[in-house]
Write a structure and sequence with these properties.
This protein is an alpha+beta fold. The chain has one domain. Strands 1, 2, 3, 4, 5 and 6 form a six-stranded antiparallel sheet that branches. A hairpin with a 1-residue loop joins strand 1 and strand 2. The radius of gyration is 12 Å and the shape is globular.
């Protein structure tokens, strides 16, 4: 993945400056939500391309995430605030 430019990126219902975020492996249930919501919206999640996804579920009634599916990995990754980061990518 190329380095992200400075800016603000989504996590749920807020946008954070890049220095407050970390890339982590998405939890399995959240990855399933990403795949389902992308399919419902007609969005293709391609490897090595960042995708900003809007998601709706009981837990996330209106949320936006930045996801990335790296080559060589079966799992998607996502940007999260550093204080929530476990299992950094």
């Amino acid at each position: 993945m190329d380095l992200l430019p400075d800016g603000e990126y989504p996590f749920i219902d807020r946008r954070y400056p890049l220095f407050e975020l970390a890339m982590v492996e998405a939890p399995v249930p959240l990855e399933a939500l990403f795949r389902r919501e992308a399919a419902n919206a007609g969005i293709e999640i391609l490897r090595d391309q960042l995708v900003e996804l809007r998601c709706q579920s009981e837990e996330y009634p209106d949320a936006t995430f930045l996801v990335w599916w790296p080559s060589g990995s079966e799992r998607m990754h996502m940007l999260v605030p550093k204080e929530r980061a476990t299992g950094r990518a």
